[in-house]
Amino acid sequence: MQRQRHAAARTKENKVRRLTHRRLRKGRTALQADSVTVASSAEGRVVTMTLPGGLLETRTAFDVTQTCERLQEDRDIRVLVIASSDEDFCSGVAEDFDRFAVSPDPAAALSRLRIPLVASLSGQCSSAGLEIALACDIRIGTPQSRYSISDSIHGSLPAWGGTQRLPRAITAGRAAAMLFLGTELDAQTAHQWGLIHSIADDAPGEATSVADMLLTRGPLALEMAKEAIHRGSELPLRDGLRLEGDLNHQLAATEDRAEGLAAFFAKRPPDFSGR
User: CB–CB of 169/185 below 8 Å?
Assistant: First the structure.
């Protein structure tokens, strides 16, 4: 029985992989797979991934993971926006969800992307949904959005980085209250605690504005800043400072750095190429 289940999972994974590859090869228009819509704008430099929202299905998790793997290969993409078509960004996982059939998990796949990730969050953002949101760099919530990780209530443990990313975002003590008690945060508290970065009535519109702002920044500088933040958080301060210095040396030899300096002295907007 277990062998049959894993065989079925592999069949489903292969199907989703084919859908995702076909979708991204088509390029710059919005396309629909079984569960996730992927659209691009700003001449293909911004990609928006829209989840169906509500309870997360296994096929949606597959779709997110496989889409991330394809996005990693496209150097033209500079920003990824993640949103939901439902009033709830993600209220947890479906009853028949198989966590072990999805590898890497969506949060891990998102966290491996070199580009900035902007999350537009609405309604409930719970458990697996919050773990996905925590893998994003900038999180924007609506005034009605709510946040929780309630795995302990069901005798389980977060499996997609919740025990690690949450305390890094809001401190260990606050994370303990959420993880142990299943405490739900409203948008105001989540903002005060640093779980979300801003609150907007039109979170998708705000996410688009943030993405447009990120396009004016040097893509290599953003990529290296993200690397410094994530790798540096696991290092002693001295080693983190050394990492920052090494990345500065790498950036100094790029065309983007030369363009940034030239634009500054010419008092004009820079035209970064990502090289």
Answer: no
pLDDT range class, residue 154, cuts 50, 70, 90: confident
Contacts of 130 by beta carbon, 8 Å cutoff, 6+ apart: 90, 147, 148, 149, 162, 166
* C-alpha closest to that of 60 among 88, 30, 102, 110: 102
Query: How many other β-carbons are positioned within 10 Å of the β-carbon of residue 58?
Result: 20
Distance CA 150, CA 229 (A): 28
Structure-token match 């928006």, residue found: 48
Give the C-alpha separation, 211 to 44, whole Å: 12
Query: Which pTM does this prediction carry?
Result: 0.84
Which residues on neighbouring strands pair with residue 120, listed in sequence order?
140
What are the structure tokens assigned to 29, written together? 């228009």
**Cα distances (angstroms) measured from residue 243 to each of 166, 222, 249, 256, 258:** 24, 15, 10, 20, 21
Q: What does pLDDT average to over the chain? A: 87
Amino acid at 115: I
Say yes or no: 232 and 108 in one domain.
no
CA distance 274 to 251: 11
Are 196 and 95 contained in the same domain?
Answer: yes
Cβ proximity of 149 and 170 under 8 Å: no
Helix axes 58-71 and 2-25, enclosed angle (nearest 10):
50
Helix (H) or strand (E) holding 255: helix 255-266
Whether 272 and 218 have beta carbons less than 8 Å apart is answered as yes
Structure tokens at 224: 């290296």
- Tokens, residue 123: 């309604």
User: Can you give the CATH number for the domain in which 34 is found?
Assistant: 3.90.226.10
User: Are 91 and 54 within 8 A, CB to CB?
Assistant: yes
Please check whether residue 274 lies inside any domain of the structure: no
**Percent of the chain scoring above 70 in pLDDT:** 88
